[in-house]
Amino acid sequence: MAIAAFITKRLIQGVFTVWFIATATFFAMHNVPGDPLLNERAMTEAIRANVEAKYGLDKPLGTQYLIYLSNLTRGDFGISFTQENRQVNDIIREHFPVSAILGVLAVLFAAVGGILWGALTALYRNRIPDYLIMFFVILGISVPSFVIAALGQLVIVNMNSALGITLFPVAGWGTLGHMLVPSMVLGLGTMAYLTRLMRSSMLEIVSSDYVRTAKAKGLPPARIFAKHQLRNAILPVITVLGPAIAAITTGGFVVELVFAIPGLGRYFVQAVQQLDYTVIMGTTVFYGAFLVFMVIFVDVLYGLIDPRVRMS
Amino acid sequence: MPNGHAYDFSPLRRTEISQSQSRPSLSYWQDAWIRLKANTRALISLYLLIGLLIFTLFGPLLWNIDPAAQDLDQISRPPGEDRRALIVPEYSPWTGSASDLEVGSGQGLRLIGEATTQSIRLGWDPTDTVTGYRVYRNIYPIGQERAYGIPRAEFFDSRIVNFEDRLDLKEGIYYFTVVPMKGKEQLLDLTETLAVEVKRVTTVREANQKGLIGLTEELGVGDFIDLAFHPLGTDYLGRDMLARLMAGARVSLFIGIGAPLFFVTFGILFGATAGFLGGKTDQVMMRFADFIVALPFLLFMILFKIAFGIGPGESGIGPMLVALVVLMWPATARLVRGQILQIREQGYISASQLLGGKTLYLILRHMLPNTLGVVLVTLTFAIPSAIFTEAFLSFIGMGVAPPTPSWGSMSNEGIKTMLTTPHELIFPAVLISVTVLAFNLLGDGLRDALDARMRNQE
């Protein structure tokens, strides 16, 4: 299959999935008990009819759905219910960059750490460093992100009070010091997965024919390691980067909550807790589209690097 | 015939055994069990999980405390703390009479009587030039920043020089500050601060109400009594941690084990049908499964929870279970389908068909049992991810509704008091981690024991 056709097919699938997410969100929100005007005082029939007309709530469900879809295609997510006069678009525009920086740092940390540690365990297979790293990997996979986040904060607090200076701020956002610990906490679980994957992928390659050939040719071990083993072992790691980005995005909800980072994840959780319908709908569709297209992007990337994927 | 001997062609004697079996024949499951037993980590995990199940199922029978009951005498108490209380007479109202206050003795801000968790009585000297006083209470010493704590009382009469505090007192040290006022303005130079050490007390009536006094015991004023025993301490509402952990284990493990059981069963049926039927039906069915896989999992869990809502008095366990099943089955379906497609081409299937085996017989007798090993491994790995999901959702407040405890929601509550009373976070967090760890290690062991192709490279 030509690469263009492969990409087109995946993109069409992605658009369809996003449409389904949008539809499911709309009808899920419609199904929520209660209605947004329930708490207003002095709501006579006439006022109610007026307000409903203003927000288009008096129209039949099908029409409301079509309006919603046409707004979405124009990139208009509506206005927040709880934060007055604040557009959902503005909320996303303001707070998504924060989440994005946190997420990119976490992915970088996870990918670099996972590849390095994984390669190291394969190199020292069944020796002390291997056991030590794998012990931490199992721990990293088994401890929930909020516990790691809490522990991270506890470590900062104790370190700061022991040193007498604020080396890293405990919470908040702004400087590199604010970003470092949360992104490490966020990337830790994914790093553990990547380490495990990298290890088994490295071990497979160590016993492959071309590595034996390279050894037989008398290449220095460092060159074999870097050129022949590492490069080929990284391939399978790329496939899980899509799910890893998804894990880090949703993991960001918790980390942003614990470290009081003004990212979109924290806003999403707050909106969910306050039942701020438009913000929930907007951020869900936004996050959904982001995740779906990230996975497609990684798939296409993998297809470009490894032609065998496209063929099947 | 060269090198030929006559005895080469003689029949064997009966006593000679032509073939021998060096080892007893083992079935697939016997073999797997032997392999699993050799894996210490997996075996320890298995015992740990059995212990956890016993803890959850039978623990509440032994430790018969209502997980929602509040012990207001002991709030946020770490385990193993002193819980003795002095018995004092019933509380009687205090008028602050002149003789009590020793007016004019010039002692400044002082304690009247003993400071107990029942009441703290304060008196101070009147100042003529002021128009009133404010009384503040803090649990930390007053430093340069002059944080006096919570305002407890405000008097617009310079002759009122006594105050009784009965609000939510716990044992420990309180710092009371009296600030004289002129009009609405505080005269900060004339403030006085007093550190008061509070003793824990109870009365005979209270102790009786809580069942702390045995039938034969005779206790009176001045005796010491042990308050209710909480082996793992109490949480921020004074609820017993052990009882809540056991009740929370039921919720977490019910969701963690129940949901995977359901969706793995559904996945097997779906995958087996698709794999066996093949062709167009298979294509359509797997397209559907692919579609579900492409949905962002946690976002849809949250959507599901919002859409179903939690009515008053409901725990919200049901919707979460349904959501998990609806979203997580495709992975098993794909796996089983792949297995069935492989097995379908095997020789023994053709042999069974040749012998007259019907379709249903083939599926039930040959195909499904041969996928069971892989399915069991999937199930073991699905459990920790379901427990994680439950904990995550409960942590962001989208899980089970209070007061139903789950390990996730307990962690969520505990993280708020992490710095002062870490035990409220540590216990549920450790239980989640240990359970997930045990299931992961057991899954590794089962995979090594059951499935040669998926075997972890050591």
Structure commentary:
Chain A has 312 residues and is mainly α. Helix content of chain A is 78%, strand content 0%. Chain B is an alpha+beta fold. Chain B has two domains: 42-67 and 237-457, MetI-like fold, CATH 1.10.3720; 87-202, Immunoglobulins (Immunoglobulin-like, Sandwich), CATH 2.60.40.10. Helices cover 48% and strands 12% of the residues of chain B. In chain B, strand 2 and strand 3 (120-123) form a beta hairpin. The model of chain B has no long low-confidence stretch (mean pLDDT 81). The A-B interface holds A 13-14, 17, 20-21, 24-25, 27-29, 31-33, 126, 138-139, 141-147, 150, 153-154, 157, 200, 203-204, 246, 250, 253-254, 257-258, 269, 272-273, 275, 280, 284, 287-288, 291-292, 295 and B 291, 294-300, 302-304, 306-309, 311, 384, 388, 391-392, 395-398, 408, 411-412, 415, 418-419, 422, 425, 429, 432-434, 436-437, 440-441, 456-458.
Low-confidence stretches of chain A are none
The count of DSSP E runs of length 2 or more, i.e. the number of strands of chain B, is: 11
Oligomer: heterodimer
> What distance separates the N and C termini of chain B?
55 Å
Order of helices and strands of chain B: HHEHEEEEEEEEEHEHHHHHHHH
CATH topology assignment of one domain in chain A: MetI-like fold
Continuous helix count of chain B: 12
Low-pLDDT windows of residues of chain B: none
Distance between the termini of chain A: 9 Å
Largest interface: A-B, 47 and 43 residues
CATH superfamily of the largest domain in chain B: MetI-like
- The second-level CATH architecture of one domain in chain A is Orthogonal Bundle
The CATH architecture name of the largest domain in chain B reads Orthogonal Bundle
Helix content of chain A: over 70%
The proportion of strand residues of chain A reads: under 5%
> Averaged pLDDT of chain A, please?
83
* SS-derived structural category of chain B: alpha+beta
SSE order of chain A, as H and E?
HHHHHHHHHHHHH
Largest sheet of chain B: 5 strands, antiparallel
